[in-house]
Amino acid sequence: MSAKLVDLLRDGKVELVVSKAEKDPAVLQELATHLKDELRSVRFNACVALGDLGQKAAPCVSELTGGLEDEDWSIRREAARSLGKMGKAAAKSVPRLSKLLRDSEVSVRKQAATSLGEIGSSAKEAILGLVGALKDENEEVRTEAALGLGRIGRDAYKVIPDLMNALKDESWTVRTASAGAIVKIGQGAAEAIPSLMMALEDRDWRVRFRATGALARIGEEAVPSLLKALKHGNPILRQGAAEALGEMKLRTPKVIEALADMLHDSDEAVRGKSADSLRTIGKPALPALTKALHDPRENTRCLAAGAIGGIGSDAVDAIPGLVEALKDNKKAVRTEAARALGRMGSSAKGAVQGLQDALGDSDKIVRRETAIALGKIGPPAAKGASRLVDLLGDKNDEVRWRAVEALGRIGASGPEVVPAIEKLIHDKCDFVCEAAVESLDMIQGKE
What we know:
The protein has 28 helices and no strands. With 447 residues, the protein is an all-alpha fold. Helix 2 packs across helix 3 (25-33) and helix 15 (223-229) packs antiparallel against helix 16 (235-248). It is elongated and about 90 Å long.
């Protein structure tokens, strides 16, 4: 048996070794003895096999820990990796793993940091070792050290200042990992708010993204700083602050009012993030969004309409404002208003008359989106379907397509409906023909 197992290890047939060990505990113990084999390939593959067995190999933690001192750096690395795969079951290996954070080989230090995080030990050696690794010369090691501290979680709360310093690291991966670790640690994270606010201005979008998420998870303690940032001269900071406030989904009047003010910001991206945040907040933000439908800026009116549509069926109070927006002097605003009403579905039945009037719009895109909206509203839009029938003769292919599709969805009836749709069965556009056939099936199926 021994010769056969050693042959498998020498030949790199790790899967077979793992399969045998899973079936026979005796093989597991024999496998551990090969961690001291004179052949490097045998020792290496024994480490790999034990790692693949995961927690099932917990009885072999002591032997694997011994592998951390192997003269071959690749075996030290694989022993560290395998211990990490065992998770908490490998807790007693933490002191020696921590020493590997000072190994001469970069890949060994990196793996030691990763494994300490996977084990999740709050042992003093682990935390102090990872804090020290935040200053490693190699950015991958520093990144893994930050990630490891984040995995340890609350028990690492005393390292928040060290992670705050790491937010200034030259590497974006280290800065990003540090921001995420601060939030995962949680306790004491409010202390990091000033540093995270600075990270919202980071030159790398990935760091800004992680800092935004971190501030959002900290919650209300970060609100005062975020509200103050909305008035900062840097539009990138204003944008990040608006996004973080939206992710918190705070429905307080103070937050909604501040975000509503940002709909008038000089920067388009800031206006967009503010509108999106108000959409996330939902129904309580409707008054502010409805008011923005009258903003002098075309872009702001479009953003407001889109945000209202994103709120969906809860936005019925904004229907009068959207119907009014269907008459806006800018086609982009009229288009967004029609789309918003369509996203409300049957809840927008109060807008049917306004949408039917908009079917006569001079712009083909507005006519198309209006027809789509009526189709999404469904049967409540059946009354007055003659306006949609008129669009079946539109010069634009997409308008005819959406109009005939809408007639089927609303289940339109009337002596003029079916004959008008039947004419489109032989339309020059295939997708119009297909929509006509489907609509006829839907209408006649109801009769």
